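Sanity check

After download, print the first record. It should look like this:
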Amino acid sequence: MSDHDNTHRPAISLREVVKTFPGAAQPAVSGLSLDVAAGHLVALVGPSGCGKTTTLKMINRLIEPTEGTIEVLGADQRALAAHELRRQIGYVIQQVGLFPHHTIRRNIGAVPELLGWDKHRIAERCAELVELVGLDPDVLGRYPSELSGGQQQRVGVARALAADPPILLMDEPFGAVDPIVRARLQGELSDLQRRLHKTIVLVTHDLDEAVRLADRVAVMSLGGVVEQYASPDEVLRAPANEFVEEFVGADRGMKRLRLHTVGELPFLQGPVVDLDHRGCLLADCVHRRRGGANLSRYRPSD
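Expected structure tokens:
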């Protein structure tokens, strides 16, 4: 394969992936095929139990697939030792999972420490990351219990980024915080992604969150079936089937409007009405011909 082909290879590729848990009547995930382009944020959305988190955990090999193949950065993940695979992947979960008896500095530096980084390099990286996620450097000496929920989520993101992995997996990362903090964290993640261009797979039950953050949205139904995989605008504009239409809701038009600013919308020139020197109404019907406008003349008395 040429270098050009490698450039366009997806960062994550799932092919006919199946996961059946022991004793389950039906697979949790059945025949899932999905590509995630490098540098893109893909959101997995769908009802509870549709296999979103199971899919995320299979990418990270926290759960082994029953069938199918998963490639990460062009390599079959089964060919890599689990710890080698996870060095390339940052993982952020709703519960954050910070070590309660370690300072924030030690929490963020945990993975670099395991990788054998020296203390000076770890300290520099921790200072860089707290600034990157919008925290005051003073938090580095504090403990998780001394931080708010929103601050702890920022630390979780910083820890996931500590060894600069090319891939981030995020499982309901903002689900445990209040709506105001959630909106702020979503904005910060969006800003962060514009600067870092990581490959991110985000699991969320919140369609608004998916629409706001993602480059592409995978709408999943029970059994890990992808009903539609498209840009947020396309999912809202043209749901692929009745399931997607019901999932995105009757207000999908309003959701779609929130994707665009006024400046991004196309300007459509309508009819122009004016008066000539005699007070006659001129209606420019915008059917312009070479050499001048096509004008219809109306008198005020008409």
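If your output differs, re-run the checksum step. Summary of this record's structure: The radius of gyration is 25 Å.
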